[in-house]
Specification:
With 548 residues, the protein is mainly α. The protein has 26 helices and five strands. It is globular, with a radius of gyration of 25 Å.
Length: 548
């Protein structure tokens, strides 16, 4: 990294200004779009609970985003916009983190452009300030890596914020905890430096810090939930048999994310199917998406080419080392398709560490870190049968990183140091243009959301005593938020899978109303329809229990 002084870094200040303005635009657009995604309503309802207003909660999900959102909620700012603003602050935090992390490898100008390009990829734009927890978790993760690098190269004290930021990432999104592997591997790559830091005092203080934090977290979870929920979630992620076609996003194609990378990078506009599927995979990618992916692939190839450079090949045992690495690669492929992704992850981590250990001409540590980061999350999410586009947003950072490497290497072939910056500037300008069109196409309220809000208002007008009535819906968390009261979640297809009937379930909770938002029921025994929106594409109906 260049000698860095943030106080004199004008590009950093410019990035802060640009990211704040740009995020403000994203928040404005998101406020028009609203919320449709199930999980985001869960975070809103949990934020209400943390604000001492219980309208239903799921405390088994990561709490950090809801905890942060609850702060302005307690000040009276109870709205979806509050969650968008919280997400926006963390998005700015993420953009700045990308810039600082990339400064460890590239010129500041390149890092600046990389941060802008990342922020304008279609997948990022779609979810940036939506209230989902993917990008907030990534924001904490990237700063955890930055402080790990600082701890290794500057001062042991930075391990404390690194570990704290890891915990924030993990408790924002549990799979975000896999960034710990990246952090540990960077420490192992710098074993000699780290060994010099491991004084008795440092070890004792960090162990006590770890035990204190672990103890507090355990007490909190056991007090409120009687256990640690992310352990069961980890088992679920590890075992594909825990899910079935009943789960939304069920997809067995292991190349799903790879095949749709162009749509995730840059799309002309959002496809109409997005508003019913909440997935960007149906978008039409721009030519720029393929250019970025081609350059990124070239960057990875350039990285791999360093393995076979002359300094390494003159090593007498080079052939044996390559044979060992090749055998590990074969076992990675076999384990992934026939054993478990956990074994695959361990073998992949061993491969990356051995690449550094065995080769005389050491590879760049940040390059290895990015390869590791990209590989870990591709393996993790490609293995699991439930695939949702936002899950893979983490790997866009390494994709942009290797694109920069490819462009930077052009100067070596052309003997012109200005060419890379020119190319990156052109890519950034094109991304801005395509992104403007994409944002315009997505900035209108989801028709399904509109219908749900209308139905909510109709039911409020129909019955003035809703607070005393039991209500159920196939999207209970959504109507809990709109009605500001607990609404039972009763999904017919899930009940059928468990050999239960909807009628029996509604009878057991004594539900007076059932709101059918997405199941398209023709009727419910013992109930009569009192509301229908007459929308053939987004059907919604409300049923009332018959008087007996």
């Amino acid at each position: 990294m260049e000698s860095y002084d943030y106080k004199t870094d004008k590009l950093l200040y410019l990035l802060v200004i640009i990211s704040c303005v740009y995020t403000g635009v994203l928040i404005y657009c998101q406020n028009i779009i609203g919320i449709s995604y199930w999980d985001i309503f869960v975070y809103l309802n949990n934020a209400m609970l943390f604000s001492h207003i219980n309208i239903g909660s799921q405390l088994s999900v990561p709490p950090i985003l809801s905890l942060i959102t609850s702060i302005p909620f307690q000040m009276g700012f109870i709205s979806e916009l509050t969650l968008f603003c919280v997400s926006g602050v963390l998005f700015v935090f993420l953009m700045i983190g990308i810039y600082i992390l990339f400064n460890y490898r590239f010129k500041r100008e390149y890092s600046f452009i990389a941060s802008i390009i990342f922020s304008m990829t279609s997948l990022v734009v779609t979810w940036a300030v939506s209230g989902s927890n993917d990008l907030p978790s990534l924001a904490f993760a990237i700063w955890a890596i930055i402080f790990t690098i600082k701890a290794v190269n500057e001062d042991f004290k930075y391990y404390y914020p690194a570990f704290g930021l890891f915990l924030l990432s993990f408790f924002t999104r549990f799979t975000g905890g896999f960034v710990l592997i990246v952090m540990i591997c960077y420490i192992l790559l710098n074993r000699k430096k780290v060994m010099g830091q491991l004084t008795k005092k440092n070890i004792m203080q960090f162990v006590l810090f770890f035990l204190l934090v672990f103890g507090v977290i355990s007490v909190i979870y056991y007090s409120y939930l009687g256990g640690i929920p992310f352990i069961s979630q980890f088992i679920e992620v590890s075992n594909s048999n825990q899910v079935s076609s009943v789960n939304v996003g069920y997809e067995l194609n292991t190349f799903y994310y790879i095949e749709h990378l162009p749509q995730f990078i840059s799309s002309y506009s959002v496809n109409d199917l997005y508003f019913s599927s909440l997935s960007t995979v149906y978008n039409t990618p721009t030519p720029l998406a393929y250019v970025i992916l081609l350059l990124s692939t070239a960057g990875v190839i350039l990285f791999m080419a360093k393995i076979f450079n002359e300094d390494n090949r003159i090593d007498k045992s080079f052939k044996y080392k390559i044979a060992l690495l090749a055998i590990i690669c074969i076992f990675i492929i076999i384990s992934y398709s026939h054993i478990s992704y956990l074994i695959t992850e361990l073998l992949f981590i061993a491969l990356v560490l051995l690449l550094y250990k065995l080769l005389p001409n050491k590879l760049n540590k940040i390059d290895l870190l990015m390869i590791l980061w990209m590989g870990i999350f591709i393996i993790l999410h490609s293995y699991h049968p439930v695939k949702v586009d936002r899950y893979i947003v983490t790997i866009i950072i390494p994709i942009i990183y290797f694109m920069i490497i490819a462009v930077d290497n052009i100067s070596h072939y052309l003997n012109n140091n200005k060419v890379p910056l020119t190319i990156l500037t052109i890519i950034m300008i094109l991304m801005i243009a395509f992104n403007a069109s994409y944002m315009q196409s997505i900035t209108h309220e989801n028709p399904h959301t509109t219908e749900e809000k209308r139905a909510t208002q109709w039911l409020k007008d129909y019955d003035n005593n809703l607070t005393t009535e039991n209500i159920s819906s196939d999207r209970g968390v959504v109507f809990s938020w709109y009605l500001k009261k607990y609404v039972y979640t009763t999904i017919p297809r899930v009940l059928e899978n468990g050999n239960e009937s909807l009628e029996d379930k509604l009878d057991s909770i004594n539900a007076k109303y059932y709101i059918d938002s997405s199941s398209n029921l023709t009727g419910i025994e013992g109930y009569h329809r009192i509301y229908s929106n007459n929308n053939s594409q987004y059907k919604l109906a409300i049923y009332e229990k018959d008087n007996r």
